[in-house]
Amino acid sequence: MAGPVSPLAPASFPTLPPIAGVRLAAAQAGVRYKGRTDVMLAELAEGTSVAGVYTRSATRSAPVLDCQQKTGGAATGRAAFLVNSGNSNAFTGRAGVEAVEALCAAVADVTGIDAGRIFTASTGVIGEKLPHERISAKLGELTGALHEGALEEAARAIMTTDTFPKGATAEIEVGDARVRIAGIAKGSGMIAPDMATMLVYIFTDAKIAQPALQDLLGQLTDRTFNCITVDSDTSTSDTLLCAATGASGVDVEGSAAFADALEAVMLDLAHQVVKDGEGATKFVEVRVTGAENDDDARKVALAIANSPLVKTAVAGEDPNWGRIVMAVGKSGAAADRDKLSIRFGDIVVAENGWVSPDYREELGAEYMRRAELVIGADLGLGQSTATMWTCDLTKRYIEINADYRS
Amino acid sequence: MAGPVSPLAPASFPTLPPIAGVRLAAAQAGVRYKGRTDVMLAELAEGTSVAGVYTRSATRSAPVLDCQQKTGGAATGRAAFLVNSGNSNAFTGRAGVEAVEALCAAVADVTGIDAGRIFTASTGVIGEKLPHERISAKLGELTGALHEGALEEAARAIMTTDTFPKGATAEIEVGDARVRIAGIAKGSGMIAPDMATMLVYIFTDAKIAQPALQDLLGQLTDRTFNCITVDSDTSTSDTLLCAATGASGVDVEGSAAFADALEAVMLDLAHQVVKDGEGATKFVEVRVTGAENDDDARKVALAIANSPLVKTAVAGEDPNWGRIVMAVGKSGAAADRDKLSIRFGDIVVAENGWVSPDYREELGAEYMRRAELVIGADLGLGQSTATMWTCDLTKRYIEINADYRS
């Protein structure tokens, strides 16, 4: 399963600061993979608010259903996140529910945390019984190893087809105090809104009540994880959890600076997921402008970002703008061929219903050789805009998915 | 561009009977390809009704817009179809419209057919000016060569990435008389409803007024060409034309036998398009049952048939039913994990929210080695059903589309 690291990967994992009130650990439970960590535990101190956003799949996994039930309310007691890779515990019937209950009970037993504040997630193959006792057997080791500096270890333990661990951080100053945010994510295939298929854990020492954090997380998800697509397929396990420990003592409710910082962390992680898209060699930003309304803008952006023909053209470094016109046309959004214009970066490719008089194929071909591209489509009809991020579609995607059981 | 013939291709092109009132010819106009035919002309006798169904793309091509304008009405004079491959004359602005007008005028000039009864189509690269004068230059040669037995020649002339020409036929007896139907199609990539991306020409010597033929064609399209998908991308050029010359003297308005025969020809051609899906090695029928309503049934069928993860699993002969569960979940249709069941052919794979107790991986693996597969999903919620046909997603699809300018 281990393939070469994505050419779009960051040079190194970022230095993530410890977040006061958060301790983590990873272990090798042997759920499916051998010779690597596959389970992570995060322990969250008294005073923590937990907010969550989950897949809307009608066949979502047992852990997702359990987390949804536990999300909300005013509780701020200690909490824990327990995540394994290698098996998604999805479509596992009654046994799946029992596995989640057994794991929560075991964590509660070892840590003394209320089972209602224990959030599990599982990622990997669908439809196979989760060997939860292998995970429970590691809880003593995990709790013994908990420490504040283990974010990278945790990021590595939750990887499946990911070729690099994903982390991001931001910091804001409020008066003399400092608020830190650090997040980790996994995700590589089965990535599509809503919401982008992945596991994401964000930790902050900010102080914020659960309802406010939940609202903020939902809004920011729409602008970040719900704006990426790798393959249009939506996971049964998507889980985004944000824990605010309050340990900084800084109340951030209504703080624009905090919202911006949290959005930056989420966007960074979302981009990293696309950059680790299975087989990806190009990172593509699709910018739609001039749509009649927001819904149309998003439809067009998604049609371009998900089009196999656009994505294979990008893979082949072919400035095949005709396929972008095709994708606009099929989107279902209002479009007028003669008002539509297409750009590669700043290069005007097509306008007024035809190729631009100044456009030359060499300009497009040169542009397509970049690792990071911007495809622009202006519909010329209104003021609405949408941005989506995607990657190219290569033979490596086929290799990974024709062979890997996910 | 010429690759190996699809492993799913029929052993040979079928023997198509001449259709009284229809004469065809093909020629090498050098629009884009060298050393092969790339233009076909069909001449339809006095008394012909012409019905058409077209792409719903908002960026449809100039010839499609022209054909739409000409479709309908009570006219039954002589008519002609002129089709070229290699250039789609789509997104070519004013020049595109002028090319269509010039071609229609030229055909009218050479044949004496009213320009309002001349239907053109173009298929191939988007956004490049159609060198229509190369086609006009061949009209003398084409009209001189017109003959009733040229359906296969015509099928070959309209191919683009197709690896085999597509034809189908049916015959019904009405009393002592005989009604014949013969059709040809092209299509391989950019295939998705609505409607399946392709050019299709069906000829019959049946007698039927335009409005009745148009109604019938629309209904049958929903059960045939609108039920296939190769890559979820919708062409700007999709055109299905049916010409009924009336030469048999048999009035088929309201005839169930004729409708069945026409549907059989359309379904045969639709299946051939999927079997020539770019890079296809497997032909997959997706059968959804037990949906709450027709819309949901279709959503689920389409989600499965378009899922890159399902299609790569089929390519890898991996009985990865978890991905089918995923596709059901993402479809947006009402689904209940615990009522859903999944089948490979007659093999019950999953039911009651989990893998079936009788299912063994070897059974699924054995089944997946077939060239033609049936994936069944029963939602267990109602009586609605839908069937879609698709193919697998292989590296060859990427090769074809990363390199070919379509």
UniProtKB/TrEMBL annotation, chains A, B:
GO molecular function: L-glutamate N-acetyltransferase activity; L-glutamate N-acetyltransferase activity, acting on acetyl-L-ornithine as donor
UniProt cross-references to Pfam families, sorted A to Z: ArgJ
Pathway it works in: Amino-acid biosynthesis; L-arginine biosynthesis; N(2)-acetyl-L-ornithine from L-glutamate: step 1/4; Amino-acid biosynthesis; L-arginine biosynthesis; L-ornithine and N-acetyl-L-glutamate from L-glutamate and N(2)-acetyl-L-ornithine (cyclic): step 1/1
SUPFAM superfamilies registered for this protein in UniProt: DmpA/ArgJ-like
Annotated site location: Involved in the stabilization of negative charge on the oxyanion by the formation of the oxyanion hole: 123-124
Active site: 197
Stored CDD domains: OAT (cd02152)
Annotated GO CC locations: cytoplasm
Keyword tags: Acyltransferase, Amino-acid biosynthesis, Arginine biosynthesis, Autocatalytic cleavage, Cytoplasm, Multifunctional enzyme, Transferase
Subunit structure of this chain's protein: Heterotetramer of two alpha and two beta chains.
NCBIfam families xrefs: ArgJ, PRK05388.1
Its job: Catalyzes two activities which are involved in the cyclic version of arginine biosynthesis: the synthesis of N-acetylglutamate from glutamate and acetyl-CoA as the acetyl donor, and of ornithine by transacetylation between N(2)-acetylornithine and glutamate.
Protein name: Arginine biosynthesis bifunctional protein ArgJ
Gene source species: Pseudoroseicyclus tamaricis
Phylogenetic lineage: Bacteria, Pseudomonadati, Pseudomonadota, Alphaproteobacteria, Rhodobacterales
Gene (name only): argJ
